[in-house]
Design a protein that fits this description.
CATH architecture of one domain: 2-Layer Sandwich
Oligomer: single chain
Strand order of the largest sheet: 1-2-5-4-3-6-7
Number of helices: 8
CATH class of one domain: Alpha Beta
Strand content: 15-25%
CATH topology of one domain: Nucleotidyltransferase, domain 5
Structural class: alpha+beta
Shape: globular
Length: about 230
Amino acid sequence: MLISDTMEETPYGFSEEWKFSVLFPGTIIDLETSGLDPSMEILTFGYFTGGVIKIHQFAKPDAELQTEFRKMIGDTMRFLPRPFYAYNSPFEESWLRTKFDIDLMDNWKKMTQRVKKPGYKWCRKHRWVKAEDSHCPYCSHELKNEPKWPRAEELVSLPHKYFGIEIEAMGHDVPVLWEEFKQTGDRELLMKVVYHNLYDLLRESCLLLWDESVTSYYAGMLGEEKGKPRRRF
């Protein structure tokens, strides 16, 4: 695991901070929550700006403290520089009630759509395949007419994955880990959530730095017309 520069106790749980030699305009924001309904708890609030990743972890199962935690998040966001970025930003927008400037998923959703051809269907393993029935001709997976949008970890793999080391939780594990934490008080369960948030912020920074000139190059390889880059850093 990475060792954070600082670990600080807070009224809501704890926070951690890491410094990186990576600069870009604005702020990447990522949340971990106890479910999909915005009325449920925000568990983790992480952001990456000015070469610093800061993660606030909620660790006090208390409704009043959750209200204060959300207020702290709102107060913090007022001072974070725009533009705001997130991967699948409508999720963060629904919880934070704040409009984000750029969805880092957009380019990759468009690329997935561009390669579809008549007679092709989507296989979760083999991507677009030519098929007339409901199952992939190369495996037994059921085919869909529309693709599953890629998760950030599917686009950007990190070194620990190559070595088969399990450091982080996945998004769907977070609610389960939160319930286990409430029963046991074991902070190691929450550290898996913190590291998932950390690594997602790093993945999203990679996608941000891969500006549209790169995605246009790949789109060109797929037979599409190259577009103009959105920005240069």
